[in-house]
Amino acid sequence: MENEYVLSMEGISKQFPGVRALSNVKLNARKGKVHALMGENGAGKSTLMKILIGIYAPDSGTITFKGEKLNITNTNYALSKGISMIHQELSPIPQMTVAENIYLGREPVSWNGLVDMRKMNRMAAELLDRLHIKIKPTAKMHELSIANIQLAEIAKAVSYNSDLIIMDEPTSAITEAEVEGLFNIIRSLKAQGCAIIYISHKMDEIFKITDEVTVFRDGQYMGTDDTADLTDAILIEKMVGRTLTDMFHKETTDMGSVFLDVQNLSGKGFRNVSFQVKRGEILGIAGLMGAGRTELMEAVFGVTRTHGGSIHIDGKAVKINSPADAIRGGMALLTEDRKLTGLYLNASVRENMFIANIHNYMVGPFIHFGKIGKDCERMRGLMRIKTPSLLEIIKNLSGGNQQKVLISRWLLTEPDLLILDEPTRGIDVGAKSEIYRLMTEFVRSGKAIIMISSELPEVLGMSDRILVMHEGDKVGELSRAEATQEKILQMATGMSLTA
Amino acid sequence: MANPGVITAHKPEKPQQTSHQISRVFSKYGIFLIFAVMVLGASLLSPAFLSSTNLINIVRQMSIVGLIALGVTGIIVSAGIDLSSGSVVGLTAVVAASLAQSPDNTSAFYPGLHLPLIVPVVAACFVGALVGLINGTLVAKTRIPPFIATLGTFTAIRGAANLYTGGRPISDLTDDYDFIGQGDVFGVPVPIIILVVMAVFTHILYAHTKFGKYIYAIGGNEQAARVSGINAARYKMLIYVYASFLAGLAGVVVSSRIGSGQPGLGVGYELDAIAAAVIGGTSLSAGGIGTVAGTIVGALIIGVLNNTLDLMNVSAFWQQIVKGCIIVGAVILDQLKNRGGK
Q1: Which of 260-289 (A) contact B at CB < 8 A?
Q2: Which of A20, A96, A207, A454 could form a cystine bridge with A100, CB 3.0-4.6 A?
Q3: Residue B176 belongs to some domain of the structure
């Protein structure tokens, strides 16, 4: 058994204006082992990793790497010492090719001082091939699906031949079938003696691939254990500081009349899809990345054009040509990509909450800020949003808390149908459970939810009915009783059920 | 059937493959097609258009703005902007002219000065690069928006040009110096030769060197470039230096072409250069997009347009209106392209 620590971070503290992000935490990673770093959003995991990679400077503490005390002041230095990172926020350069992205900053140069594109493409092809990732090195990043972009980022991190790779939610955008491929990559990295720090909110991944787990809570070190000694329940309790008995809070509700009826709808990325949602129902939509789920819902919500087919709301035929039409029809859409399509990053928490609902707070030409304050304060309590104040700029909040603000925004519009696209992506287990509780309460009052999710436990746990899509087609529908992980995966990957 | 070891992510099939393909070809080569159509149209409208004198004339006229636009392209690719290049032309024109006056001119700026031709040229390029260093430092170190930083130098550098000569022009330049703007080699005007050489050099610089790759990377996603270990501030600074160096070279060409260095030279050139880059497909809305070839064609389109309207006796006022429409049209095209590419 290899016992030597390749990395040892001791007594690390970091203070941001108004927040103590880390206080006296430690983390030790071993050669050839996968070390999980767990904790809720805002627990300080990402902050610690940014310190390790040289984006932040710690206020105190020491970093020892390969027996050498390091003072890491920039990313370049960390990379040169053998520490690389897959960043949580995917950061490709869209107009450049996969190969250019992978070798950015260390392009091969030929005798005349020019970048040797041919050699670079060949190196990228070999790398991708070795990792069994099927992407063309000459493809432009913006032509790839989110899942392939993530795979390219993984290839990039591996290409540094580092002794330590930090993986910050490496599976946030890829689906279960592709996760297995990533795990194969991780296993071969382990065999080469590479240490890996693995950050993920997905429990099954932690138990499948990691050797040790360190838990942080509110910037404090809570302990390190062998993964084999842990269970779901123990781990969750360590992270949230309380026991979560029922993660999903699922209740069977009484179904009402059909609220939304979509027939034979086609559009960019999906074809001829029909489905219904009843009042009181949660309809889950499962499928791999790129199956057309997001495209379908954006079309229903009037973001993109549709051709053919019909949409009925409460039995009445409607034309939805814009999101405004959809909102009038009683719908609300929580988008998949918070930063791109959801948040006003430079506006306050309060602004972000009431922006979709401003007409309800008008007194003549004036905005009734008192009423807004009261409603927002109620949402803040209900959603347990962690923010110093409602006037805090939202980009200073953690990802989970941003998501809660967005959900609050749509709850304030009191919609009849809430469409949630990956509602818990990148969100910690405590916040997840709260979002599930809110979903249950929402449908209990006779309203409907459509939830797109790539996390099968979530789809199975929350949905009354599950619609499965594959490459733009609806390939089936399963009731809660008949749905299993295997059945959904089979349908989603396009394998016939009898095979 | 998914092989468990192989990772592939599924993309939805594109229902309209062929139309997608066509729009892709168009978005890549559209500007060249438009240019070809314009040349064809111009030659039909006016038989004089295709004469070699006229064609050379067009290129000579666009060569000065073309030089500036080469640098401006790099700056816009890095997600920046440069408003100061016209003022740099004014300052470098007077600096160069003051060092290139005839030695027997008794009322010269520096009387009795007799320097080799290389001195005024290098001095102008150096002064230009210096202004670029100021722009680049402001943009990269203080992080004020490039628009504001270069708006400041736009104003201040014009002032410096006027201050240097007391607002007066500097005339009576040496024949050697005048040759740069007025001479030709085997029938090809020297400004065109300078433009072609610099265009080829700039193309290699942008498309085939690390420096170029990093400019595109910084424009496309600065954060990503930084976490890949690229010193973004340094490369941003360098692109401003290079652009102003080219503007300095343009200052030499323009002053020798008219045989006089005037502090008011180059007014409005910065906007013409930006227009050429934008018409040529350099994206103002998203960084990381733009090519030297596109920009040259962009400048040629403006040149051909002006020339054709001249030949057809359309008034200069109408020409301005048409040019304005072309610029806006090019940006609309760019937006459609970006939407289609997604």
Answers
A1: 268-271, 288-289
A2: A96
A3: yes
* Count of pairs with CB atoms under 8 A, one residue in A, one in B: 128
Name the 3-class secondary structure at A470.
Answer: strand
Looking at the complex, report in whole angstroms how far the Cα of residue B178 sits from the nearest Cα belonging to chain A: 35
Residue B300 counted as domain residue? yes
Name every chain A residue with its beta carbon within 8 A of the beta carbon of B227.
Answer: 53, 55, 75, 85, 87, 91
CATH code of domain A5-240? 3.40.50.300
Identity of the residue in A145, A270, A472 whose CB atom sits nearest the CB atom of B9: A145
In degrees to the nearest 10, what's the CA dihedral of B331, B336, B337, B342?
130
ipTM: 0.75
pLDDT digits (tens, 9 = 90+) for A184-199: 889 989 998 999 999 9
Which chain A residue has the Cα nearest residue B1?
A495
Is the separation of the CB atoms in A152 and A102 below 8 Å? yes
**Residue ranges of domains in chain A:** 5-240, 280-305+318-492
* Cross-chain CB nearest to B227 (options A75, A100, A148): A75
The model's pLDDT over A293-338, given as tens digits with 9 standing for 90+, comes to 989 998 999 888 888 889 999 999 999 988 888 888 999 888 877 6
Phi, psi dihedral angles at A28 (to 5 degrees): -125, 130
The CATH number fitting domain A280-305+318-492, selected from 3.30.565.10, 3.40.50.300, 3.20.20.80, 3.40.50.10420: 3.40.50.300
CA distance A328 to chain B (A): 27
Tell me the whole-structure pTM to 2 decimals. 0.73
In order, the DSSP letters of A122-189 are: HHHHHHHHHTTB---TTSBGGGS-HHHHHHHHHHHHHHT--SEEEEESTTSSS-HHHHHHHHHHHHHH
Question: CA-CA-CA-CA torsion for A356, A360, A364, A367, nearest 10 degrees?
Answer: -60
Chain B nearest C-alpha distance from A246 (Å): 32
Does residue B150 belong to any structural domain of this protein?
A: yes
* Tokens at A380, concatenated: 């803040």
